[in-house]
Design goal:
- This protein is an alpha+beta fold.
- It has a single domain, classed as outer membrane lipoprotein receptor (LolB), chain A, CATH 2.50.20.
- It has 4 helices and 12 strands, in the order ααβαββββββαβββββ.
- A 12-stranded mixed β-sheet has the order 1-8-9-10-11-12-2-3-4-5-6-7, with helices on one face.
- The longest helix has 16 residues.
- The radius of gyration is 18 Å and the shape is elongated.
- About 14% of the residues have low confidence.
């Protein structure tokens, strides 16, 4: 077993490489109701907010993420009550498993430690990477009570993904430190199906698929070295 601090450092390094740790400004957007302007369809923005809220309540799901051209692909499995997490990085074969307070980094010779709330923290980072509107699942972060958020949102034509009809929303959220541009695909049951992260000229630079909601996902701790 290694120290919780060492394992936390390894995991944070992995999350950083995967660009899952969002900026402080973005994470703080929902701690208090920010001042905001909405250019476009306010009801559409409410539907976006509701979709991400539904994601935080989902009991289990899988996430497949890839960058442009399929680069930096990885898969998450998430289970709640109790919180369990499994991350697989396709390019390196690295895996992260978190079950309750126990966390392991592998495979092969698994590096394990006890680190309270790490699974909740990691899941919070996963969801927050694609969510400019929700509080984290783990510890609350400092507020930015004077935050100004400028939103531009429009509905787009419905799209069928894997045989499932989705409503499509394209939006940008301008914060003091960045301008978030995304396209969200929402299933008829109100859950997110896909997020496309867009660059400044609206090319897709990252695709994130949410699927297998409610699946019987089994995540167990490996034998630790």
């Amino acid at each position: 077993m290694v120290s919780g601090n060492r394992l936390r450092g390894l995991i944070l390094a992995m999350l950083s490489i995967l660009t899952l740790v969002a900026s402080q400004a973005r994470l703080s957007t929902a701690q208090q109701a920010p001042r905001e302007t909405i250019d476009g369809d306010p009801q559409a923005w409410k539907e976006v907010v509701n979709a991400y809220a539904n994601l935080t309540r989902a009991g289990s799901f899988r996430v497949l993420k890839s960058g442009s051209g399929g680069r930096n692909a990885h898969m998450w499995e998430v289970v709640r009550n109790p919180i369990r997490l499994h991350l697989v990085v396709a390019e390196t074969g690295q895996e992260l498993i978190a079950v309750g307070s126990q966390t392991a980094l592998g495979p092969g010779r698994w590096i394990c430690a006890s680190s309270s709330n790490l699974a909740a923290f990691a899941i919070g980072q996963l969801i927050y990477r694609y969510t400019p509107v929700l509080p984290p699942l783990g510890d609350r972060l400092p507020s930015l009570s004077t935050l100004q958020r400028d939103i531009v949102i429009a509905r787009q034509a419905d799209v069928t993904i894997g045989g499932e009809k989705t409503s499509v929303y394209k939006y940008s959220v301008r914060l003091p430190s960045e301008n978030i541009r995304e396209r969200l695909f929402v299933l008829e049951n109100g859950l997110p199906r896909r997020v496309e992260v867009l660059d400044s000229v609206e090319n897709t630079i990252e695709t994130v698929d949410f699927q297998d909601y409610g699946a019987a996902i089994v995540i167990t701790m490996p034998v630790c070295q």
